[in-house]
From TrEMBL:
Keywords, in A-Z order: Coiled coil
Organism: Batillaria attramentaria
Protein's name in the database: Uncharacterized protein
Record-linked InterPro entries: FAM81
Domain of life: Eukaryota
Family assignment from sequence similarity: Belongs to the FAM81 family.
Length: 189
């Protein structure tokens, strides 16, 4: 019984350890994914901010250049303004296109992270379900073995009891015969 109890406790302890390792691995992987996604978002934000700053600086530079040109040449002012506006529009369009691409990249990264996270969660849940099922089967098998062991012990005890009862009756009959013979001998004497 003690060995069976020890085996059940050892099996239960091993299952707990496996589950704790799985949870630890899951937490580590989730932390790594979270840190990676945060780093990616921070990098993209930094890039966007740098592009905006560069765009603003370029715009200011172009505006300053335009003002200088206007001061120098009043006749070509309208033409220069048109060229500068066109250049600024092109730059703004380019920056907006890059921002859209970066936002799409961020969205794709988030979707990939979500897919990876979902895959990891489903894989871990499947593994945990498998371990729980195996442990349940082990416990059921152990219970069955215990019941069979108890039945065998009970049967052995019943057999020993029957044998002992038979021996007791034989001894009782033998003692009665011997007592009867002693009485006959006493009567004869």
């Amino acid at each position: 019984m003690i060995a069976i109890n020890n085996q059940v406790e050892r099996s239960s302890g091993e299952s707990r350890m496996k589950l704790q390792h799985l949870e630890g691995d899951t937490n580590t992987q989730m932390s790594m994914i979270d840190a990676k996604s945060r780093q990616l978002v921070d990098e993209v934000k930094t890039m966007i901010e740098a592009l905006r700053s560069a765009s603003a600086a370029e715009r200011e530079r172009m505006e300053q250049r335009l003002m200088n040109l206007i001061e120098k040449s009043g006749a070509s002012r309208d033409l220069l303004l048109e060229k500068v506006d066109k250049r600024l529009d092109e730059m703004q369009y380019g920056v907006e296109a890059r921002l859209i691409k970066l936002e799409e990249a961020i969205l794709d990264s988030r979707n990939q992270i979500t897919d990876v996270q979902t895959h990891i969660e489903s894989k871990l849940l499947a593994k945990m379900d498998s371990n729980i099922k195996k442990n349940s089967e082990d416990v059921t098998k152990l219970k069955r073995e215990c019941r069979e062991g108890f039945a065998t012990v009970h049967e052995s005890i019943s057999n020993v009891k029957t044998v002992m009862e038979g021996k007791r009756k034989l001894l009782e009959d033998q003692l009665r015969k011997e007592i009867g013979q002693i009485r006959k001998m006493v009567v004869l004497v």
